[in-house]
């Protein structure tokens, strides 16, 4: 895992869970990949192992990772699809309305947006 800055705004287990989800969405953790062990993460980030276990358990409860007895936790085959679907839904319901409103307020056309995207690539 990469360096993590903990914030006071949310419980650490939730922040750790969100970091693992971000790694899945970014392709850093792919289906079949093993998650670092609870002990390894706890030692590396000076966390209580129970905190790490709670984050991992929530990921397992959402079927994003699976426990393999004696081997650890692994990213499920469906994780990417599930996460992408939920992120798309969240974007469309929570973020898109504000983006759409701003586009309308600025009077931008579809052509301008597509040209702008083409220049950004």
Automatic annotation (TrEMBL):
SMART domains: HTH_GNTR
Keyword Transcription attributed: yes
Keywords: DNA-binding, Transcription, Transcription regulation
Highest taxon of source: Bacteria
InterPro entries on file: Tscrpt_reg_HTH_GntR, WH-like_DNA-bd_sf, WH_DNA-bd_sf
Sequence ranges assigned to domain HTH gntR-type in this UniProt record: 10-78
Annotated Pfam families: GntR (PF00392)
Spans through the membrane: none
Any one GO molecular-function label of the UniProt entry: DNA-binding transcription factor activity
Record's protein name: GntR family transcriptional regulator
Organism field: Pseudoxanthomonas dokdonensis
């Amino acid at each position: 895992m990469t360096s993590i800055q903990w914030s006071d705004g949310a419980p650490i287990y939730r922040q750790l869970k969100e970091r693992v989800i971000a790694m899945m969405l970014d392709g850093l953790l792919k289906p079949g990949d093993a998650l670092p062990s609870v002990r390894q993460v706890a030692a590396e980030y000076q966390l209580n192992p129970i905190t790490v276990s709670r984050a991992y358990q929530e990921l397992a409860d959402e079927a994003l990772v699976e426990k393999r007895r004696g081997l650890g936790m692994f990213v499920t085959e469906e994780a990417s699809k599930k996460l992408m679907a939920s992120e798309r839904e969240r974007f469309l319901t929570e973020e898109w309305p504000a983006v759409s409103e701003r586009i309308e307020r600025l009077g931008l056309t579809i052509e301008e947006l597509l040209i702008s995207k083409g220049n950004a690539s």
